[in-house]
């Protein structure tokens, strides 16, 4: 087995790393402090082709694969997670459902702008009373003539309210299954549709330069042709999307964990106490060694899950393992990096303060750590 990257993957990684270092790092602190969405950075990522990485060239994509997206996410998150989650959600949750399950007409209509980064899309799954129980959908859609009429609400939706958001795909109960349970389908709701209201941006702990909103649907009418995939398959479709997305979140988590290592090494060489750099102290060296170990093993976990996915092999368990290990490792690394920085780690001018605030959501979003453990245990036969 060989875990090295091909020439193409290596070139992509270096390109994104340079962009993150030269373009994102110098300005993201200001965006973060002002809670502003970084439209210019998103535009530049679109020009680089990052939003089109895993999509076919016929739809304006780069003809790459999901692992390429993960490499880009890791490098972006080494510097900032707000920019990284904007890319992750736009691709994995916004465009991917259309690419995987949409009709040819839907793909030709929506994907080119999404692949170029000229527009963003979101997926509305979580509801105020649902949380981890995504199957407890209360939003409803009924057929009226040649239209769906949608009523309900969604919460914690990324990329839902930017100036360049084109649409949100929402899950809704569209009937009852043969077994008496809810029939859940996915439906595209374009921006500006009457009755579709996007709430103000949340006041969040972290990811302050990303867009997260609550959505409301009050007799929203869209054509029947806005159904994504088969009627009644919306929940099953999104479970597949979540499996893939967990690999992407693992990659983002690795980036944050590695960024904590990078910043801690730099600080340990610069900061002096008691007449010498703090990095001369074995206690600091061991903390950073543990941080590097967590980042390295988490990277191997998401590499393995991505390789299985691209090979067409089962990968649900490996994706859950990668997401669980990487997200918890990111939180541990952020805590350690803040400790190494001491009082300066509590100051927003230092990147580790941002990383500490951004890390916790990684144990929650796209499936909590408890959900990942449940998935792993079930796959082991429990």
TrEMBL record:
Please give the superkingdom of this protein's source.
Bacteria
Descriptive protein name? Alkylation response protein AidB-like acyl-CoA dehydrogenase
Q: Where is the signal peptide?
A: none
Specify the Acyl-CoA dehydrogenase/oxidase N-terminal domain's residue ranges: 6-118
Pfam families in UniProt: Acyl-CoA_dh_1, Acyl-CoA_dh_M, Acyl-CoA_dh_N
Q: According to its UniProt record, which cofactors does this protein need?
A: FAD
The alphabetical list of record keywords is: FAD, Flavoprotein, Oxidoreductase
Matches recorded under Gene3D superfamilies: Acyl-CoA dehydrogenase/oxidase, N-terminal domain, Butyryl-CoA Dehydrogenase, subunit A, domain 2, Butyryl-CoA Dehydrogenase, subunit A, domain 3
Q: Where is the Acyl-CoA dehydrogenase/oxidase C-terminal domain?
A: 232-380
Extract the PANTHER family matched here.
ACYL-COA DEHYDROGENASE (PTHR43884), ISOVALERYL-COA DEHYDROGENASE, MITOCHONDRIAL-RELATED (PTHR43884:SF12)
Taxonomic lineage of this organism? Bacteria, Bacillati, Actinomycetota, Actinomycetes, Micromonosporales
List the molecular function annotations (GO) for this entry: acyl-CoA dehydrogenase activity; flavin adenine dinucleotide binding
The answer to whether UniProt assigns keyword Kinase to this entry is: no
InterPro entries found in the cross-reference section: Acyl-CoA_DH_CS (IPR006089), Acyl-CoA_Oxase/DH_mid-dom (IPR006091), Acyl-CoA_Oxase/DH_mid-dom_sf (IPR046373), AcylCo_DH-like_C (IPR036250), AcylCo_DH/oxidase_C (IPR009075), AcylCoA_DH/ox_N (IPR013786), AcylCoA_DH/ox_N_sf (IPR037069), AcylCoA_DH/oxidase_NM_dom_sf (IPR009100)
Q: Which family does it belong to?
A: Belongs to the acyl-CoA dehydrogenase family.
Domain Acyl-CoA oxidase/dehydrogenase middle as annotated: residue spans? 122-220
- Membrane-spanning regions, if any? none
* UniProt-listed SUPFAM superfamilies: Acyl-CoA dehydrogenase C-terminal domain-like (SSF47203), Acyl-CoA dehydrogenase NM domain-like (SSF56645)
């Amino acid at each position: 087995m060989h875990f090295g990257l091909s020439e193409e993957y290596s070139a992509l990684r270096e390109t994104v790393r340079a962009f993150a270092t030269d373009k994102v790092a110098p300005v993201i602190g200001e965006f973060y402090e002002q809670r502003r969405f970084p439209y210019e950075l998103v535009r530049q990522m679109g020009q680089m082709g990052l939003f089109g990485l895993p999509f076919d060239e016929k739809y304006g994509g780069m003809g790459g694969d999901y692992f390429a997206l993960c490499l880009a996410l890791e490098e972006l998150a080494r510097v900032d997670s707000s920019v990284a989650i904007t890319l992750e959600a736009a691709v994995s949750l916004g465009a991917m459902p259309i690419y995987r399950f949409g009709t040819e007409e839907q793909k030709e209509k929506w994907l080119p702008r999404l692949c170029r980064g000229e527009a963003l899309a979101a997926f509305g799954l979580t509801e105020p009373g649902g949380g981890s129980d995504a199957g407890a959908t209360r939003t409803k859609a009924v057929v009226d003539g040649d239209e769906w009429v949608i009523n309900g609400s969604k919460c914690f939706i990324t990329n839902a309210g930017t100036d360049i958001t084109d649409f949100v795909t929402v899950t809704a109960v569209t009937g009852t299954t043969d077994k008496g349970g809810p029939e859940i389908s996915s439906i595209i709701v374009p921006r500006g549709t009457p009755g579709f209201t996007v709430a103000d941006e949340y006041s969040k702990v972290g990811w302050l330069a990303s867009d997260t909103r609550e959505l409301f649907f009050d007799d929203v009418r869209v054509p029947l042709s806005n159904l994504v995939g088969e009627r009644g398959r919306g929940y099953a479709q999104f479970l597949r999307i979540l499996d893939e997305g967990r690999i992407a979140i693992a990659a983002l988590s690795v980036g944050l964990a590695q960024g904590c290592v990078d910043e801690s090494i730099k600080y340990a060489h610069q900061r002096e106490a008691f007449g010498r750099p703090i990095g001369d102290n074995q206690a600091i060296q061991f903390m950073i060694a543990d941080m590097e170990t967590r980042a390295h093993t988490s990277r191997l976990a998401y590499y393995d899950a991505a390789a299985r996915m691209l090979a067409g092999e089962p990968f649900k368990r490996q994706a859950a393992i990668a997401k669980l290990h990487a997200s918890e490792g990111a939180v541990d690394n952020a805590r350690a990096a803040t400790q190494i920085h001491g009082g300066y780690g509590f100051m927003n001018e230092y990147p580790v303060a941002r990383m500490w605030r951004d890390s916790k959501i990684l144990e929650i979003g796209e499936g909590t750590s408890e959900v990942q453990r449940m998935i792993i245990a079930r796959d082991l036969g429990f």
